[in-house]
Give the backbone structure.
Amino acid sequence: MKGSFGRITIVIIEILLMIYTISLIFPFLWIVNNSFKTVAEFYKNIWNLPGKLQIVNYINALKETNMLSYFINSIIITVIGTVSQVIFSASTAYVLAKYKFKGSSLIFAMTVSGLLIPSVGTLAPMYVFMRNTHLFNALGLLILYASGMGTNMLIFYSFFKGISWSYAEAAFMDGANHWTVFWKVMFPMSKGATIAVAIITSITLWNDYFMPSILLTNPKRLTIAVGLKALQMQQQYAASWTTLFAAVVIASLPTILIYVFFQDKISKGFLMGGLKE
C-alpha cells in the first residue's frame, strides 16, 4: 500500500512539473511562431502557423532598430563582467577558505547575511553612491558586476575548502609565492566551479534589466535587455509586433544555446561544490 501511494505521489509530481514546464516553454514557442508571420497574418489570427516563413522580420529587427548595437554592447558588458566576477569571486573565496586572519569569519558571516537582504533594500544607498561618484555609465555597471561577494563567492569557497592545502605547501617548497600558488595551483583545480559560475553569471548578466536600466543613461550604450524595452515602445506605436517578436528571439538565442550546450557542466559544477563542502 505504501509503495503504491509513493508511486502515485511521484506521478502526480511529475505531471505538475510537466504542466509547469509547458507553461514556461509555450509563450516562447508562441513568440517564435509569430515572429515568422507578416503583420497581416498576425492580426488575422495569433494562433495559426505562418503561411510562409518570413525572415524579413529578423532582418528588420537588425537593420531598422538598434538591435545590433544593443547586441554588441551586451556581449562586451557580459564578457567583461563575467571574467571580472569570476576572478574577484575566486580570489575572495580562496583567501577566506585557506587563510585564517582576524576578521575572516566576520567577513564570511557578513557575506552570507548579505544574501538575505533584498536588492531593493540596497537600491537607495547604491543609487546615491553611484551618482556622487559619477558612475552612471558602463564603467559603473561593470564595477558593480565585478563584486567578489555573493553566491559565486560561496560556490568557490565550497571548492577551495575541499582542496587539500598540501598542494600549496608543495608549491611553497618549490619557491612559489602566495600569488603563484593561487593562479598556478589552486585556481586551475577549481575548474568545475569556474565553468559553472561563468556560465550562470554570463546568462544572468545578459538578461539583467534592472541595473543597466538605472546606470546606462547613454541611448547608444544600452544592453539588449534595456533595448528590448525601448523597442517595445517603438513597435507599440508602429503596430509591428512581429518585428518585436523577432528581436525577442534574437535576444534569447545566446542564453538558450549556452544553457543547452553547457547544462551538464553547470549541474556537475554545482554538485561537485556541494559534495566538497
